[in-house]
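Can't paste images in this forum, so I'm doing it all in text. The chain is below; anyone willing to post the predicted structure tokens underneath?
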Amino acid sequence: MLGRHAYRSSDRIEAEESVIVHGNKSDYKAQTVNISDSGLALYITDPFYIEDNQQVSLTVSTKRYKASLVGSIVYVRQDGKGWRYAFSVKPKDNQSERQYLQIVHDQPHSLPE
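Text version of the structure:
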């Protein structure tokens, strides 16, 4: 492949869904910015600390679906008045995998209509 290196294994889809990051000391409520089969980015107003190699539990939920995920941080940056966190994620079990894929693929696509 020519050009720049592709870091993502799948396309990100813009989505605003509820997500809870289960940290060591407390849970953090946030909103997804975008999601894919293998990762998600979220936006939160107050930053929290996660070590580089630390695995965290995340729960993504919609009106119809709820998925439990395990993820590791890819990057963090300040974005406007809040913070954007990107995670590489994997579902915890088969049920969560099915639920998460429904969450991802039920989103409106970003292709031109």
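Residues 13-105 form a domain with the Thrombin, subunit H fold (CATH 2.40.10.220). DSSP finds one helix and seven strands in the chain.
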